[in-house]
Amino acid sequence: MKKKGKKRKTQPTGYWIFFCNPKIWKIDEFLKSGKEYDTYTITEWQKNYFKPGDLGVIRVGTGCKRLKPGIYAIVEVLTYPEKMVSMSIDYWQKKEDAKKHRYRVEIKYLKSLLENPLFLEQIKSDKLLCKEEKLIKGFQGSSFPLSKEAFDRIVSLTSSLYDIEEKMECIQNLSANTLTEIRELEEKYKDATPRIKEVVSKRIERGKIAQKIKELNNYECQICKALNKNPKVFKKPDGTYYIETHHLIPVSSLEKGSLRTSNLITVCPNHHRQLHYGNVKVIENTEKHIIFEIDNQIVKIEKVKLS
Predict the structure, then answer these.
(1) What is the largest CA-CA distance in the chain?
(2) Which residues is 241 bridged to in the sheet?
(3) Which residues contact 202 (CB under 8 A, 6 or more apart)?
(4) Which of 46, 60, 164, 270 has its CA 20 to 30 A from that of 31?
(5) How far apart are CA 252 and CA 97, in angstroms?
(6) Structural Rg of the chain based on CA atoms
(7) Which H, E and C letters describe 147-205, residue by residue?
(8) What is the 3-state composition of the chain as percent helix, strand, coil, each rounded to the nearest 5?
(9) C-alpha distances in Å from residue 69, one per residue of 35, 65, 129, 144
């Protein structure tokens, strides 16, 4: 009778704690060098969990007099794990350890916190972070999953989210200006982390396709127009009217079809917020139209579709 494999208690989140022992690897010297790219050893049994676009923090442990325990950097995973030698041999205390073929991922340092680390005492005193047991106590390994909420909290305490996103390798060349590019994005990022999905969503909404939809809809709020209200908002300095685009299926979910032009409508800021946070019921959603119940009224909107 075949025995069942042991089920892992931990599950991947797309966010990681990379544990560092400065007695083995000189993280402070590396950060002082200003280098952005490196490899990082990961826990072997989690090798199938890592993927490009994952994000993480470098957590320095106890036992090193020159560095207090805490978080010293925010990083992005660039590759799937492979057995390889270290990219930064000069920063290892024992060169032979660096030359061993171990499972590692390539990473990019998005933010160095060497001058202002998030110390363990601060982590313990934070209402959200204190619940992250592995972040507090450490882990006998080189990597461990971190919750999205904890990662976002660390970013809010140490960095500007805008600065982090602008440096992310996986999105620097992200383009969403043609239908082909949008289809490619939909496939590429269908399993991405929530943070990556949010960034993809922003790029789509700022891209040429969204601008074309606005133009075809005459820069009007389609909901206001269906309710026989003034569909124009205000004029911008370039003479065009301000309008926003809304994804009927949230792009952050990256469900199939969420990036397509048939998923976009144009709305005023008020209705945009209402669609996200108000009491709005979708009665029917097809490739050609969508029917809402909003403010106790039934509204039918014809969709614009680009070929």
Answers:
(1) 75
(2) 235
(3) none
(4) 46
(5) 41
(6) 24
(7) CHHHHHHHHHHHCCHHHHHHHCHHHHCCCCCCHHHHHHHHHHCCCCCHHHHHHHHHHHH
(8) 35, 25, 40
(9) 22, 10, 15, 17
Taking the C-alpha atoms of residue 37 and residue 73, their distance in angstroms, rounded to an integer, is: 12
Residues 6 or more apart whose Cβ sits within 8 Å of residue 116: 158
**For residue 111, what are the β-bridge partners?**
74
Using CA atoms in the order 125, 146, 203, 206, what is the torsion angle rounded to 10 degrees? -30
Which CA distances in Å does 139 have to 28, 134, 144, 145, 283?
20, 6, 7, 11, 49
pLDDT of 305 higher than 70? no
Question: Is the pTM above the cut of 0.85?
Answer: no
Q: What is the mean pLDDT of the chain?
A: 84
